[in-house]
Design goal:
The complex is a heterodimer of chains A (79) and B (325).
Chain A: E1 2-6, E2 17-22, E3 29-30, E4 35-41, E5 44-49, E6 54-59, E7 66-67, E8 72-78
Antiparallel strand pairs in A: 1-8, 2-4, 2-7, 3-6, 4-5, 6-8
Chain B: E1 2-5, H1 11-23, E2 31-35, E3 40-43, H2 49-52, H3 55-61, E4 64-67, E5 75-77, E6 81-88, H4 98-109, E7 115-117, E8 122-125, E9 134-144, E10 147-155, H5 160-166, E11 173-176, H6 199-210, E12 213-214, H7 219-233, H8 235-238, E13 245-253, E14 256-265, E15 268-276, H9 286-290, H10 297-308, H11 316-323
Parallel strand pairs in B: 1-2, 1-12, 3-4
Antiparallel strand pairs in B: 2-6, 3-5, 6-10, 7-8, 8-9, 9-10, 11-13, 13-14, 14-15
Helix pairs in contact in B: 1-7, 4-6, 10-11
Classes of the chains: A mainly beta (79), B alpha+beta (325).
């Protein structure tokens, strides 16, 4: 089943993050707990991990672009 | 809180020590570190040294270049600047700065300083209680799993002129999505103390205020830290982790001008172009000559000599020196 991965809300302030680095590419299988991407928000770099096993179908945000908390960042399929 | 000090003054060793304590040791309490570096420019995790640093100047002066794990902008360290680190396994899931900055601000107030924490997570000093504030501390964090590493600077008696010269980059035209520094007015804490003290005394007072026990690095710790140092010192980390960028540089000679353009990803040239008064015989295929080559003066010079010798009417070493200055 296809679904979307959203950027988790890790800041209580109304601020956007930068998606700095993708650690997966379309076609990759990422297991729960593995690193998906790294973001930077207000001078903090934070690693975002997969919450379940997934196949990456499409990355929706380019490296270096702003992204809001709760925004879709990748289209994936459960595996 | 546990106090852990090191005698290291190389940024690669200090970052290795932080990373080691955060990821390979477990403590029941938070850890606090105070450390200093020899003259060094430190770029943020997702920054581009070519956009932030005068690379030719720091090379001439023997100033180190390092990339840290945390975000934010470029800073200058020297032995007049103290860095502090908090390492905790008990941080909130949400980003929090006040928990770490409040005790630092309080320790500074105990020295008679009027300091305030800003919305950008800096600590500003207001001399004479005035409205004009000066930055004395920048703060930033990185997280690895459930561990938060919060670190910041304390400008105690830093060479500010050297700071400005080191962090004024050469004139490139760069297009990139790398994180950009935000420059602020700065001052040194020592200038505003009513009772003068050395940097060592300053650090002793901050450390004593913050902590109640000490951890001394053992032989095993030191060996592991020295091993990790190689990673932080590597070109792969410092330059290879630069976000992708396009860079143009116009180079002038007595006989004409050359404009070089490069697209660089992970520190490697993926495409290159050239226009200008370069002809001596054939057109140089810069893309073929430089694609796959590391974007550094040494590698670019070697590749041009291998592939384009006799084509440029200008000296290759001089040309490359001008590209990277």
């Amino acid at each position: 089943m296809e679904k979307y991965v959203k950027l988790p809300e890790i800041s209580k302030k109304k601020e956007k993050a930068i998606l700095c680095e993708w650690c997966a590419t379309p076609g990759d299988i990422i297991h729960s707990g593995e690193l998906l991407c790294v973001i930077e928000v207000n001078k903090v770099t934070e690693e975002i991990y997969a919450e379940y096993d997934m196949e990456i179908l499409c990355l929706l945000i380019e490296e270096g672009d702003e992204v809001a908390f709760g925004e879709n960042i990748a289209k994936v399929r459960n595996v | 809180m546990i106090f852990c000090t090191t005698d290291f003054t190389l940024p690669y060793l200090n970052f290795a020590a932080e990373y080691y304590l955060a990821t390979r040791k477990h403590f029941d309490e938070d850890v606090f570190m105070l450390w200093r570096n020899e003259p060094s420019v430190i770029i943020g995790r997702y920054q581009n040294a070519y956009e932030e640093v005068n690379l030719e100047y720091i090379k001439e002066k023997g100033i180190h270049l390092a990339r840290r794990m945390s975000g934010g902008g470029t800073v200058y360290h020297d032995l007049g600047c103290w860095e502090f680190t908090f390492i905790t396994e008990k941080a909130d899931e949400n980003i929090e700065f006040e928990r770490f900055m409040n005790p630092i601000a309080e320790a500074l107030r105990k020295l008679g300083l009027d300091v305030r924490i800003t919305g950008r997570n800096d600590i500003m000093l207001y001399p004479d209680g005035g409205e004009r504030g000066y930055k004395i501390s920048g703060n930033t964090q990185y997280k690895k799993g459930n561990v938060t590493v919060h670190h910041g600077t304390l400008l105690f008696d830093t060479d500010i002129e050297e700071m400005v010269k080191s962090t004024t980059p050469a004139e490139y035209k760069i297009t990139s999505k790398a994180i950009k520094s935000v420059r602020e007015r700065v001052t040194n804490i020592r200038k505003w103390l009513s009772n003068d003290m050395t940097g060592e005394e300053f650090a002793r007072r901050i450390g004593t205020y913050m902590t109640d026990s000490e951890y001394i690095l053992n032989e095993e710790d030191l060996a592991a830290i020295h091993e990790l140092k190689d990673f932080f010192e590597s070109r792969k980390w410092i330059y290879g982790e630069t976000p992708a960028f396009d860079i143009k540089k116009t180079v002038s000679f007595e006989g004409g001008t050359l404009e070089f353009g490069f697209t660089v990803k992970k520190g490697i040239i993926v495409s290159a172009g050239l226009s200008g008064d370069f002809f001596s015989s054939d057109d140089p295929d810069l893309d073929a000559a430089l694609s796959g080559v590391e974007f550094s003066p040494e590698e670019v010079s070697s590749a041009l000599k291998r592939n384009c010798s006799g084509i440029f009417k200008f000296d290759i070493d001089e040309t490359v020196r001008k590209i990277f200055s």
